[in-house]
Amino acid sequence: MNWHTLIGHPVLRYSIALVWLVNGVWCKLLSQVPRHEAIVAAILGGTYARGFTLAIGLAELGMALWIISGWKRRLNTFTQIMVIMSMNILEFLVVPELLLWGRLNLVFAAGLCGVIYLNDRYHAGKDHV
User: Fold this and answer.
1) Torsion over CA of 95, 98, 101 and 104, rounded to 10 degrees?
2) What is the chain's alpha carbon radius of gyration, rounded to the nearest angstrom?
3) Where does residue 78 rank: exposed (0-12), middle (13-18), buried (19+ CB within 10 A)?
4) Is it the case that residue 37 has pLDDT exceeding 80?
5) Residue 125's pLDDT is what?
6) Residue 123: per-residue pLDDT
7) Cα angle value 55/78/24 (rounded, 5°)
């Protein structure tokens, strides 16, 4: 199996959705990774950190469902990349000490965005947006 086959494989789409699902449900809604709420508190303030963390978790759950649905795939790809990079640049600048891999998180985020983009480009000629 070559990279072109891998980047277009349906399992990749479900794997990307799983990243959003785990981060939204496990890490934020179920509070199994307290670091996520600490990041929100450091950026937005502690008073409403839990509420904002829950809202972010619900949005990430929604993103996972949107990815799985395949609806408006190109808009979904654009939205994922903008959210991932915006969030990671903000965290890089404001709270790098709270990130799993510190400032290196931005490199992993860019890599994930690259995979999301390549998966979208692979499917661009195969279906309609």
Assistant:
1) 0
2) 15
3) middle
4) yes
5) 67
6) 84
7) 25
Of 127, 126, 121, nearest in space to 4 by CA? 121
Residue with tokens 């000629």: 125
Token couple for 94: 């404001």
Are 36 and 87 contacting, i.e. CB atoms less than 8 angstroms apart? no
Lookup: tokens for 110: 């860019």
The residue ranges of every structural domain in the chain are 3-124
Q: Tokens for 44, please give them.
A: 């937005």
What is the dihedral angle through the alpha carbons of 9, 10, 11, 12, rounded to the nearest 10 degrees?
70
The rounded distance, in Å, linking the Cα atoms of 58 and 24 is 6
What contacts 13, CB < 8 A, 6 or more positions away? Answer: 67, 68, 70, 119
Is residue 128's pLDDT more than 60? no
CB 123 within 8 A of CB 4: no
Report the 10 Å Cβ neighbour count for 92.
18
If DSSP codes are grouped into helix, strand and coil, which group holds residue 32? coil
